[in-house]
Amino acid sequence: MQDWPKELRAQIQAVRALLTATPQPPEALAARFKRQPARAVEAVLHALQALQALQALQALQALGLASHGPAGWSTLPGPSIETPP
């Protein structure tokens, strides 16, 4: 059992390392650390999800499928699919 890192960067690295080895729920991740920091682990997971969403949007923007304007991110409409009558 390891100590929960004090710095955010180290916390993210620790959680990512555990998730890379085996996907597991937040409670199981927290149990791998002394004092079982469930709230802190959940906060790191939320941050990783937000980062993943941002990276996905940036990839769509690079492909010309999304844009960022004053109202925030928006995806561009794809081809329309007509349904037969």
Explained architecture:
This protein has helices at about 10-20, 25-30, 40-60, and strands at about 65-70, 70-75. The protein has about 80 residues and is mainly alpha-helical. The protein has one domain. The protein has a two-stranded antiparallel sheet with strand order 1-2. α1 (about 10-20) packs across α3 (about 40-60). The radius of gyration is 19 Å and the shape is elongated. The N and C termini lie far apart (about 65 Å).
Low-pLDDT stretches are none
With helices defined by DSSP (H or I, 4 residues minimum), what is the helix count?
3
Strand content: 5-15%
Largest β sheet strand count, sense and barrel closure: 2 strands, antiparallel
Total domain units: 1
Shape from CA axes?
Answer: elongated
Key words describing this protein structure:
85 residues, mainly alpha, two-stranded antiparallel ribbon, 2 strands, elongated
Short description:
With about 80 residues, the protein is mainly α. It is about 55% helix and about 10% strand. The protein has a two-stranded antiparallel ribbon.
